[in-house]
Amino acid sequence: MSALACCVDAAHAPPGYAFSAWDSSLPSPVNFSGVPPAPTTTTTTSVAASENASHWSPSLSSSLYNIDGWGAPYFMVNSFGDIVVRPHGVDTPVPQEIDLLKVVKKASDPKSVGGLGLQLPLIVRFPDVLQNRLESLQSAFDFAIQSQGYQAHYQGVYPVKCNQDRYVVEDIVKFGSPFRFGLEAGSKPELLLAMSCLCRGNPEALLVCNGFKDAEYIFLALLARKLALNAVVVLEQEEELDLVLFLANKLSVTPMIGVRAKLRTKHAGHFGSTSGEKGKFGLTTTQILRVVKKLEQAGMLDCLQLLHFHIGSQIPTTALLADGVGEAAQIFCELVRLGANMQVIDIGGGLGIDYDGSKSGNSDISVAYGLEEYSLAVVQAVKFVCDRRNIRHPVLCSESGRAIVSHHSILIFEAVSASLSNAGSVTPFGLQYLVDGLSDDSRADYRNLTASAVRGDYETCLLYADQLKQRCVDQFKEGSCGMEQLAAVDGLCELVFKAIGVAEPIRTYQVNLSVFTSIPDFWGIGQLFPIVPIHRLDQRPGVRGILSDLTCDSDGKIDKFIGGESSLPLHEIGGVGNGGGRYYLGMFLSGAYEEAIGGVHNLFGGPSVVRVSQSDGPHSFAVISAVPGPSCSDILRVMQHEPELMFETLKHRTEVFCPLEEDSDDCGVGMGKAALASSLAQSFHNMPYLASCSLSAMTAGGFYYYSEGDFSAAADPAAGDDEQQWSQCCA
């Protein structure tokens, strides 16, 4: 007997497939072995989860998701199956590890039970990790400089475009002050931001002014220098020099000038498109020579002090890095020979992140080196060229934004539902209804399908299953087949596919998130980030799934994951575990670019944000700041709408169409015009994402996120007039 089929004797049909009235001209329905029945009770699910847990461990989950590969030294799985953050990297003792699930519960629990009442999605920032990244980068360069006998120092700058959040930039300036760490700006708002922040930084810190410039940009950069900030105007275009010379004279300030060189060195990955001779930025060697000549004629060649270049983000190997740095070092030495007062070589960005833990040099999402290897390659390349040319070693500068901020920020979101398998919908009634409506050709396909299943002829079985399904689809389009029949054949075919093991059914998990707002690089350039459940990792994931967001857009899904996977191992929603029935996922290494690039597609705004620091409290952490995500009103204002006027319009409409008293049932669930107006006001105030509210809160007339008690007060007419309620809701 084939493993694919059981006995087809009608008198002993398997449970769930025997009919009291079966068409005797057709074979009895086939039960495909190896397919467990769908669980019918919560107890069954809990027992199954417990059995899985007994054969699973956190270490197996860590290996499955390669957490040690991409997460070290900041993320790991603890013995409870939760992901923990090690804020000080390898130097973090176990009592100082921060359980990410506890942070989420603190942020999202109602205020009535000690939580912060924030709505998900949620960005969790760890300033301690940010500090550790800065210190690690500085230490790597310091070690390379000392070990190679390099005769200058390293002082980096943070490119604020990576993440312009106020606290991120201010923390970097504070943590980097002992190392003379500075900032890089590429636009006028970024320059204003950097000037303000560096007023509280190290006076020797560099302020590198990149990007295309007009007179106002150059004026601000020169003003920064007049204000005793160490600002460098980096020429991206040759004609910018004329503005620098004119405005410097007008402001009576001696400028510090840099040039950005277009190198011949180029890497072939996606992030290398800005490098090479045809790159978007920088000056050719011919243009650099003209700049030198013009400065010499103006008697200001000593103002040229910095050489900048950028091979591209995510440089995959140190071999490519050393090639580019070596070429730039030759240009640096040539500028010294021509009489320029060269002091600094700025190697730009490119220090990559290993997003998938593969440590591969042949991928856009991985790199084949660490901080130590990167620093050593830079120091050796510059030293080799300068020593051979007998040129004094320059100060080394890098713009390593991605490497600094990626690890410190985690996006947390909830999977709120999941698609169900069609196989569970195969019922005796469904199959009988299917057979009754089959055409002669379809009946033949069904007979052949059953016979193939009995023989164990998998390939033929699949052929007839596909053929049967297509015939039924054609019948449905012609109007000769009903929806029940179509559903039955879908369930039957999925049962066949699952039993044969052709492909594991992929579930779709709906997540409370907008891909376009929170993960724009995935949608835009296919950038992959590690996405992992943050809890229940002591249990075996029972299904594989893709993630579908809230937007009304077919691109609003995540169906590619690290490791070349097209689905993600996931747990059943609502199973046993530490999440209290909720299922939380985290996207890691997401601290660079995503927040700045994200839009408001479907009017979904950014997530709530908490900053978490390691502390000596009972849970090893303290929330040092918490900011709710933008409300519906905030997002509407971005698109030039006026929420207050919108509310007044809808409130007036309520008075016209629902003029009944508060205790009337005619306007739905006992809500009168006052309660309806209050609910409208609260909807403007709430975030646009799905809210978790109880049925009692809904019947009370409002839709709050964990705020039933607060809503009762807000909905009370005695609490104040409508204008007061609106001002409270939208404050």
Automatic annotation (TrEMBL):
GO MF term set: arginine decarboxylase activity
TM regions (residue ranges): none
Top-level taxon in the UniProt lineage: Eukaryota
Keyword terms of this UniProt record: Decarboxylase, Lyase, Magnesium, Putrescine biosynthesis, Pyridoxal phosphate, Spermidine biosynthesis
Residue ranges annotated for the Orn/DAP/Arg decarboxylase 2 N-terminal domain, each copy included: 153-406
Gene3D superfamilies in the cross-refs: 1.20.58.930, Alanine racemase, Lyase, Ornithine Decarboxylase, Chain A, domain 1
PROSITE patterns: ODR_DC_2_1, ODR_DC_2_2
InterPro entries per record: Ala_racemase/Decarboxylase_C, Arg_decrbxlase, De-COase2_CS, De-COase2_N, De-COase2_pyr-phos_BS, Orn/DAP/Arg_de-COase, PLP-binding_barrel
Reported cofactor(s): pyridoxal 5'-phosphate; Mg(2+)
EC class (word): lyase
CDD domains: PLPDE_III_ADC (cd06830)
E.C. number: 4.1.1.19
GO annotation terms (biological process): L-arginine catabolic process; putrescine biosynthetic process; response to cold; spermidine biosynthetic process
UniProt key word Protein biosynthesis: no
Pathway entry: Amine and polyamine biosynthesis; agmatine biosynthesis; agmatine from L-arginine: step 1/1
Catalytic activity annotation: L-arginine + H(+) = agmatine + CO2
Pfam families: Orn_Arg_deC_N
Family the entry assigns: Belongs to the Orn/Lys/Arg decarboxylase class-II family. SpeA subfamily.
Listed name of the protein: Arginine decarboxylase
Organism: Rhizophora mucronata (Asiatic mangrove)
